[in-house]
Amino acid sequence: MRRLQVSQNRRLTYRDLAKMAGTSERTMAEWMRGATSPMAMNGLLNLMAALKADDVIQVLALWRETAPQDPTSADRTQEIHK
Question: Is the pTM here over 0.90, yes or no?
């Protein structure tokens, strides 16, 4: 299984990423190799690209505080950012 190096101490598989994104492992693999892309993600990235870097950080921090997440994805997200 292919792995993505997220940090020096943490690697995620396509299965891990797919679970966090709420999609299938195959879909995640296609996104990662650039064969397809999620339309909503493109729109979100376009919106964020229009913001200043500090504003993007604020948006992400607010999302992290208020977004409903299942415990598995929240734990994985915290592990990634350690």
Answer: no
